[in-house]
Amino acid sequence: MKKHRFHPETESVRGASNLDKRNAPLAQPIYQTSTFQVTDSDQQLHATSTDMFYTRYGNPTHTAVESAIAELEGADAAQLFASGMNAITTSILATVKAGDHIVAQNDIYGGVTKFLSVWLPKFGVETTFVDTTNYSEHAGAIRPNTKLLYLESPTNPTLKVVDLHRAVAIAREHGLITMIDSTFATPINQRPTEFGVDVVLHSGTKYFGGHTDLICGVAAGRRDLIDQIHATRTTLGGVMDPHAAFMLLRGIKTLALRVERQNESALRIAEFLSEHSKVRSVNYPFLKNHPQRAIAVEQLRGGGGVLSFEVEGSGEDAKRFSEALHLFTLAPSLGGAESLVSIPVLTSHAMISAEHRRKMGVTEQLVRLSVGIENADDLIADLEHALAVVTGNREQVSVG
Q: Checking phi first, is residue 138 left (phi over 0); if not, alpha (psi -120 to 50) or beta?
């Protein structure tokens, strides 16, 4: 873990920028170029390992953003990718080989579940999925050829919280690399490097970008592992466009402000829903009845902007509820300034088996909310209206 210079709010704005007084642009310039010229062949050889050779290898705009993210995470280094899934798949491929074994939580994003269970076996890599919060099961699944422990916390979409101290201790005891998808938390709420996690992954599309207008992935962590991941990224080619990287850096400047507002509003909404007669259950880390609340309060600075809940009724009722909302837009993704609603069985977890979804507790009645920065009272009123519409429809059906 690298020592922080400032608080997260300051690091979001200043990143790893040079604070010396000098004549320089305040905004990071965009190096909108695919390649860089050199003066001679000798310089060409030296340029290969720099960010001014070819943009698939690196780019000064990328470097500025990667340095800012590494500063926020307290990591040695960071890398940008074309998408969150590209960051995850490239990072995993960089650290395993044929014959290796991975231990992963049951509760992870559906696309990663599919990659681990369907794609990696084609390359001779096997994954054992374990109960997310059963750490004896984590330890018991480790084999002599296990290379990686893959984590996600808080989890998508059931908002379980992993005890990072325990998970990292198990990994270190067995010499495993630890990776965590920390998208829901952001470095404002959680810095996994402080717990000893080796590589921190994000879908930068979400909170880092913050405005639902770019696609991005991030890996941050130990220098030696990030170097391995960079070499793999260079080969696989999943690099981010420099202009999108500029937009990402602009989004990061307001990250702390947005997350603070989303923390507050999501907790209020979770408390409202937990007391509503038409809601079966609510998943949010800072709710008093959350099974890992003690760990959440210890590890997280806030509960985040995502929550999920089950409506009373059927999957059709969940659909009707989501379609009756106005301020919560029916769309996949999360983390933007605007509030979104989705049904995980139809979106984020549609690509995995019903049996795996059942183990995760992802039901047809489960609704996921991404809380934006709108007024919380307005959002609660919208939810109240949609729940009333569903109840009214159900009563009409039963009477008819």
A: alpha
